[in-house]
Write a structure and sequence with these properties.
Blueprint (H helix, E strand, L loop, with lengths): L1 H29 L3 E3 L5 E7 L19 E9 L2 E9 L9 E2 L3 E9 L11 E8 L2 E4 L4 E5 L1 E9 L3 E2 L6 E2 L11 E4 L3 E3 L4 E9 L2 E9 L4 E13 L19 E5 L3 E2 L6 E2 L7 E4 L3 E3 L9 E9 L2 E10 L12 E10 L9
Parallel strand pairs: 2-15, 16-25
Antiparallel strand pairs: 1-9, 2-5, 3-4, 4-25, 6-7, 6-10, 7-8, 7-9, 10-13, 10-14, 11-12, 13-15, 16-21, 16-22, 17-18, 17-19, 17-23, 20-21, 23-24
């Protein structure tokens, strides 16, 4: 009986040795060396191009330098607003910043076939907080030694299996801050390397500035409704080769802008006046979006309740909205009869 047990144990050891030898031989034969993207040997660096710089210079006549007049809006309740729009100026080309906090996806394409690698451990997703990328649980991107193109994008961008195309659907929903970045071909060697992404914005950022002789706004909110449009938005236009298709708009609206209740800063143009600045929201559009906006405004201004719906706001703008652009829509509040403090 003892001999039988010993023989079984010896057989198990021999079988294990054979399997181990076969596995080692397969690795030698195929020459596979898996390199983990984001691992010790292949670091990830994600930067973000800056938006255009907000224009800060003031003029006595226009309020904000480069502001384009857009007429006057009757808010009701004895209030009107003189409207204009100002555009930022391009940031220095050499300037890049650490990417914004958010969730990102990284893909690899075979540089020879331009096909995305699909399968187990072929997509790396994770969150960036404070510039540090942390992979999602169970998410890995492992590659053999070879040459690849890498693409990083936010969740709202969908990539096709063939390099260079994709889509960003937003039918009747608010546009979020979407970005995409791609590398030139990179040959992985197994030595210490890094993949550097520069993320490009696929939209412009827009905010509101309200200037008036008041210290407080109460629950003031603004929404821009652009309606429907048949002009598709070709969104994937970055220097690294993505062109992509477009998506027609249907009932596109902005996020809700909530103005601060207390002043953001004192006006540098009008003595005793205050400025209230909203946060930036994001918009994507091919045609000129300023030509006709349905503007909704609600809240309390100068102690008067405002509830203006679907006011058509037309801004004569010499160019379309630009990706990566910065725009501020300026509202100069004027109780009627108008305060002469706003006059030059």
């Amino acid at each position: 009986m003892m001999n039988i047990k010993q023989n079984k144990g010896l057989f198990a050891l021999l079988l294990l040795a054979v399997l181990t030898a076969c596995t080692s031989e397969d690795n030698i034969t195929t020459g596979k060396q898996l390199i983990e993207v984001g691992g010790d040997k292949l670091k990830i660096v994600i930067n973000e191009e800056p938006f255009d710089v907000e224009t800060t210079a003031r003029t006595r006549a226009g309020g904000v330098a480069q502001a384009i007049p857009a007429g006057t809006v009757d808010l009701g309740e004895g209030l009107e607003a003189e409207v204009s729009i100002s555009q930022g100026t391009p940031a220095p080309k050499t300037r890049a910043t650490v990417v914004s906090d958010g969730h990102y996806n990284i893909y690899a394409y075979d540089a020879n076939t331009n096909q995305m690698l699909i399968g187990p451990n072929k997509k790396l997703s994770g969150n960036v907080v404070g510039g540090v990328f942390t992979p999602d649980a169970g998410s890995r991107l492992e590659l053999e030694v070879g040459t690849y193109r890498f693409v990083c994008c936010t969740d709202g961008v969908s990539l096709d299996p063939t390099y260079g195309t994709g889509n960003m659907p937003f039918w009747g929903i608010n546009v979020k801050k979407e970005m995409i970045g791609a590398t030139d071909p990179i040959t992985l060697s197994g030595d210490d390397q890094q993949i550097v992404f520069l993320m490009y914005h696929r939209e412009a950022r827009v905010r509101f500035r309200i200037t008036g002789y008041t210290n407080q706004l109460t629950n003031v909110q603004l929404v821009m409704d652009f309606g429907s449009g048949s002009s598709p938005y070709g969104y994937l236009k970055i220097p690294t080769g993505f062109q992509g298709g477009g998506t027609s708009m249907l009932g596109l609206v902005s996020d809700t802008y909530t103005m601060p209740s207390t002043r953001t800063q004192a006006s540098v143009t009008y003595p005793l006046a205050n400025e209230f600045l909203s946060d930036y929201k994001y918009l994507s559009w091919t045609a000129n979006p300023w030509a006709g906006i349905n503007l909704n405004i609600s809240g309390t201004i100068y102690g008067k309740t405002v509830n203006m719906q679907n006011k058509i706001l037309k801004i004569v703008h010499p160019y379309n909205q630009n990706d990566n652009g910065t725009y501020t829509i300026n509202f100069k509040l004027k109780p009627t009869p108008a305060l002469y403090l706003f006059q030059d």
